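Late entry, evening session. Most of the bench is empty. Finally got around to the prediction I had been postponing all week. Sequence below, unchanged from the version circulated by S.P.
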Amino acid sequence: MTRHSHLCRQFPVAILVGAAVLAATVLYPAAHNTAWGQSVNPGKPQQVAIIALEIDGDAAPEFLFDLDRELASVIENAGFLVRSFDDVRQALSGEPGLLGCISPDCLSRLPPLLGTKWFFRLQVQASGSVYVFELALLTEEGKIEGLQPVQDTCPVCTARELSEQIGRAAQRLLDIFEPVPIAIDSAPAGASVRVGDETLGVTPFQGSLAPGKYDIVVELEGHSTASETIEVVGASSAGKEVQTYLIELVPAIVDDGDKGGGLQASPPFRLWKWPIAIAGVTLIGIGAYHLSIDGDETCSNTDTQVCDELYDTGTTGITALSAGIVLGLVSGGMFWWDSARGSGSDDEYAGEFALQPRRGGAVTTWRIRF
């Protein structure tokens, strides 16, 4: 029997109203697709640390602490926990060589000490009231692919104005963790889309995902389940354009004989009916030949010699002919049974070709039934 998927469970009437409301609140977002309403953001870091803060030039020494506070405030206002440069300096007091070091070896040793793998590095060059700065967001592996450091100049500005400009630069870098608009469609449409255990909705799906790689599962009745890894690019790299993904679904073989869901169940006798039919035809031919020569003289040239022996092949011919007729009836029954079990269409024994695009190539399938 064909299986039918249900996105929502039906609850008995006897369940308390409060429990029903709570269940509906939990299940509705997972089972329905609202315009740009779905958001999955598992990749957003909980904490960011300022691991390097360097000021060169004629800036006052206390200016470093002002920048540290401003940058930490911006990170905190963006929804992250933050470890200020002053806090990092104290945490690394036992490892002074790691403070300000951004080599791959240093960065890989920081997460256990600071509790995060996301780091800010700020460099400022001061000359009077002119400031040039570079702000970079790093991970334990170094630079983030596709995310360039922010380099900017603050000409003839106060320390407060510089702090605000650095804050805006930090916000631009933190935007890579914000969910971006995405659209997932399937061919054919109407398939459910899951990321892990969370159901996003039904194709064509529109929503938002945090930047990162996701293993999505697309399911549609009558089709093979498709699994695809997609990579959502952060807003800083791709802007706010909708990132679209199309998943091709391949028809699946169903277990019953109805016409829904693509190619029907394989015939029960498949190839067996063909050799039986061939054997039956061969035996009928052999039997007919033996019957035709029964009673004929065995000599090849009766004009020059007298033949005392005659062919006695009647029994053999009748036996072979009977066996051939039986096999013919059996194979005929097999053909009829397979036809009755099939879809009854003219192309019942035709093949079906499908091409499913995959990352880095495609998968081609050819199904044939006869």
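Two things to note before I forget:
Residues 270-341 form one domain.
Confidence is low (pLDDT under 50) at residues 1-42, 257-264, 343-350.
Will write this up properly tomorrow.
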